[in-house]
Amino acid sequence: MKILVVDDSRAMRMIVKRTLSQTGYAHATLLEASNGLEALEVIASEQPDLVLSDWNMPEMSGIDLLDALAAEGTSVAFGFVTSESTPDMYARAMSSGAKFLVSKPFTPESLESALAGAL
Amino acid sequence: MPVSDDDIRQITESVWLATLDLPLDREPVAFSDGERLTGCVVISGGWHGAVTVEVSEPLARRAAARMFDVPEEELDAEEVRDALGELTNMTGGNIKTLLGGVSQLSIPSVAYGREYRVFVPGASVVSSVEFGCGREPLQVTVLERQVA
Predict the structure, then answer these.
(1) B86 and A103: CB-CB below 8 Å?
(2) Which residues, 6+ apart, have CB-to-CB distance to B143 below 8 Å?
(3) Contacts of residue B14 in chain A, CB cutoff 8 Å?
(4) What is the value of ipTM here, to two decimals?
(5) Residue B10 — very low, low, confident or very high, per pLDDT cuts 50/70/90?
(6) I want to staple A104 with a disulfide (CB 3.0 to 4.6 A). Which of A83, B22, B78, B136 is the partner?
(7) Contact pairs from chain A to chain B, CB under 8 Å
C-alpha cells in the first residue's frame, strides 16, 4: 500500500509518518509532497492508494487538490488532516469526495480509525 | 469573543501534549532577555484577528527536536521555525474552529530575535495566556480586529 502525505510543514509530515508507523499501516510505503501542485505530480507518477492532505497550504490547497483530482478523473481515497474542522469545511470536504477529516492534534487511534473507514 | 482563556489553555495544552508529549504548567515562567520566537496566524472572514504563540529559543528547539525526532544539536534554524509554525497553525486552527462562522486561516509566519514586537495592524489583545514548560516560557495571545 502507498500513502501520500501532503503538508507544507516538514515537521507535520514527520509526525503523520511517525504516527502511521504506530498503527496497522506501519508497512505502507509513505510518499511526501509539500503542497497540492507537488502532490498532483506524485499521484500521477506513483498512484498511491490513499492521500492524507493538509487543508491550508501555499501554491495549491488541499481542497483545490481534491477538486483538481476530480476534474481530471483521478480516483484515489482522500482524507484531510487539518488543524481546522469547522462544519462548513467538513461539508465542503465531503461534497468534494473526501472520505474523512481528522483534526490536528491527532492520536494513532483517531488516525487509524479514520483510515480504516476509508480503505 | 466566543473563546475563553480556559478554552485557549485547553487547546494549547492539548496541542503540546498530543504532538510533543510535553505537558505544560499553568504557572507562568517569565521571558528572559535571550532569543525568542513568535509564530503568528491571521484569521479573516466571519472573525478578524490573529493568534500568536511566543516561546523562548530553548523551548522552540526542544519542541522541534521532538517533532523531527532528532537531537537538538542536529536541528537547523529552518526546522525550528517550521516546528513553531506548525504548533501555531494547530493552536490557531483549533481556536478558529471554536469561533464559529466562516473564516480563513493564513499560512503561519514566524519571527525570531531578541528585541522585537509583533504588531497586527488595527488589532488589540483580547486574551493572553501564559505557561511554563520546564523552566521555559510560552505565551499564547489572541488579537481581534474590529471591522466596520
Answers:
(1) no
(2) B49, B50, B51, B52, B120, B123, B124, B125, B126
(3) 105
(4) 0.89
(5) very high
(6) A83
(7) 64
